[in-house]
Amino acid sequence: MNFVDKNVWITGASSGIGEALTYRFNSLGARVIISSRRESELQRVKNACKYPQKVEIVVLDLEKYHDIDNIVSPYLQQFGNIDILINNGGASQRALVVDEDLNVVERMINVNFMGAVALTKAILPSMIAQKSGHIVCMSSLAGKFGIPLRSGYAAAKHALHGFFETLRAENYDNGIRVLMVCPGYIRTNVAINALTADGSPQQTNDPGQEAGLDPDVLAQKIIKGIEKEKLEITAGGGETNGIWVSRFFPRLFAKIIRNKK
Question: What is the reported pTM?
Fold first, then answer.
């Protein structure tokens, strides 16, 4: 697939997987719109790109999803269309269900699910009009099965599958393709920034995260997934085997997962 001058919108682009995807698409000649809450970090990423003149910064807070349509509208007019939307922005958590504040669950749903839905709905009509488009959703292994300490996060990631797999079925004949990405441990700051029971950040890393897959490796897998029009990809280490164990040996998996705290 030729990505030259394709318009690619990436959320969560100020670090981690989103940052790696920005560099990859930019090096392939795409026009990249990068979003997150932190404008200074987006500027850093833009400056580090091979073709910074082909990068547009749009500050976006996914939690404030009611504002997204108005923010997106002028950029759709400016660019005419978005060829690839990558819903990568999100947040994680580390808290027991019994301890977590309800607003932590709400934030997980709003940031990880409602923000992606609102941005997609803002862009989808233009994709339908042009009869083409690719939507990538960053799910997780937690989108395939529940994991202790991640209840709200897992709920939001499960919801992504229900919504975007439906969107995929509805819009296949409109030339729109949907790729669900289900990574395991990726070497990012997601655990450091994860919300604890009262909503404050954990501020420490998880051993699995520290030893996780390089974000650039995942970025390459995602681009190949887009090129091959895959429906879903997984990436990580041995933890990805949990998908198959949970499917074929559910009782064994239930015993294993309850000890993963």
Answer: 0.96
